[in-house]
C-alpha cells in the first residue's frame, strides 16, 4: 500500500489521448493531485504513465473490471478518493428510423450504466473522503440533436441520474455535479468513425444522404481546447462551489440561456438553423417526395 498523506486523489475514466479525460488527468496532476488515469487498455495511456501519473486498466462496461479497480484504488489510498470524474463516453450518429440496437445499447452501457457502476463501487471511497463526483454531461442532452438522438438520450438520462444521485449522496457530504459540456475539440467531434452517419440506400433519408453525412462538420469550429476545458473544470473542482450543473465549453452559456428562457419551439427553430445542412436536407427530402 502506498498512501500519500495530505495529497488529494482524483480518478478519471476515459483518458485516451485527444479527449477530455486525457486533458483532465494532466491538469489534475499539474495541480498536485494524485491522479489515477484509466482506460480499457494501458497502452492507450502509456504517455500519461511516462509523465508520472498512475494508470489503471478499467472498462466501465464490465462489472468485474470496475470492482477490481475500486479494490485496487482503495488499497493504494487507504480507502479514500477525493474526486471521481466519470468521463468515459461513446458517440453514436445515426437516424432514429434505422439505428442498430446493439450500437445503441453499447452507447447507453458506456455513457449511463458505466457511470452507475463507477458510483456504486467507488461510493465507499468517496464517502470516506467527503469527495466529489463529476459526471461529464453534454448540452446535446438538452437541445434537439438530429441524427444524434440516441447519444443525446444517453446524456439526458445521465443528467437526470445525476440530479437524483446528488440528493442521495448529500447526507454523506459527497458533492455530485453534472458538467454540462458545450463544444470541446476532441477526437469524437473532429473525426467520427467512417461507419457513422452513413445513410443506406433503403433509408427514408437517402435523397439527402450526402448532406446528412456532413451534418455537424462544423461542430469543432471555435470549440474550446481540451486543455482549456480541463483547466476550468479542475479550478472548479478545487473551489467551494456547489452547484448541480456546471456549464463549460463553447456555446454552453448560450445554451443555458436558451434552455432556461426560450420555449421549446423557439429553441427548435434556432437549432434547425444552426446545424449546418438541416434546411438543405429538408428541401431535398420534400422535393423527392413530390417528384
UniProtKB/TrEMBL annotation:
UniProt-listed SUPFAM superfamilies: NAD(P)-binding Rossmann-fold domains
Alphabetized GO MF terms: acylglycerone-phosphate reductase (NADP+) activity; triacylglycerol lipase activity
Highest taxon of the lineage: Eukaryota
Annotated Pfam families: adh_short
Keywords: NADP, Oxidoreductase
UniProt KW Methyltransferase keyword: no
GO biological process: phosphatidic acid biosynthetic process; triglyceride catabolic process
Gene Ontology CC terms: endoplasmic reticulum; lipid droplet
The keyword NADP appears for this protein: yes
Annotated family: Belongs to the short-chain dehydrogenases/reductases (SDR) family.
Protein name: NAD(P)-binding protein
Amino acid at each position: 500500500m502506498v498512501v500519500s498523506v495530505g495529497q488529494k486523489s482524483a480518478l478519471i475514466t476515459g483518458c485516451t489521448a485527444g479527449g477530455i479525460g486525457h486533458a483532465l488527468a494532466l491538469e489534475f496532476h499539474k495541480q498536485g493531485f494524485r491522479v489515477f488515469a484509466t482506460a480499457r487498455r494501458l497502452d492507450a495511456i502509456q504517455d500519461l504513465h511516462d509523465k508520472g501519473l498512475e494508470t489503471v486498466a478499467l472498462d466501465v462496461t464490465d462489472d468485474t473490471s470496475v470492482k477490481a479497480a475500486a479494490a485496487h484504488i482503495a488499497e493504494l489510498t487507504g480507502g479514500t478518493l477525493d474526486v471521481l470524474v466519470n468521463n468515459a463516453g461513446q458517440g453514436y450518429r445515426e437516424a432514429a428510423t434505422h439505428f442498430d440496437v446493439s450500437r445503441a445499447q453499447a452507447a447507453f452501457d458506456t455513457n449511463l450504466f458505466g457511470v452507475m457502476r463507477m458510483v456504486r463501487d467507488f461510493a465507499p471511497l468517496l464517502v470516506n473522503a467527503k469527495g466529489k463526483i463529476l459526471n461529464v454531461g453534454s448540452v446535446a442532452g438538452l437541445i434537439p440533436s438530429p441524427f444524434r438522438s440516441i447519444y443525446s438520450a444517453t446524456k439526458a438520462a445521465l443528467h437526470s441520474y445525476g440530479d437524483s444521485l446528488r440528493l442521495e449522496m448529500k447526507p454523506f457530504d459527497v458533492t455530485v455535479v453534472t458538467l454540462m459540456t458545450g463544444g470541446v475539440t476532441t477526437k469524437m467531434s473532429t473525426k467520427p468513425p467512417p461507419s457513422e452517419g452513413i445513410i443506406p440506400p433503403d433509408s427514408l433519408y437517402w435523397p439527402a444522404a450526402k448532406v446528412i453525412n456532413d451534418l455537424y462538420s462544423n461542430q469543432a469550429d471555435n470549440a474550446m481546447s481540451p486543455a482549456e476545458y480541463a483547466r476550468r473544470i479542475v479550478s472548479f473542482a478545487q473551489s467551494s462551489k456547489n452547484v448541480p450543473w456546471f456549464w463549460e465549453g463553447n456555446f454552453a452559456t448560450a445554451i443555458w440561456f436558451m434552455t432556461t428562457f426560450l420555449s421549446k419551439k423557439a429553441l427548435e427553430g434556432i437549432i434547425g438553423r444552426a446545424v449546418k445542412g438541416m434546411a438543405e436536407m429538408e428541401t431535398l427530402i420534400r422535393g423527392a417526395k413530390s417528384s
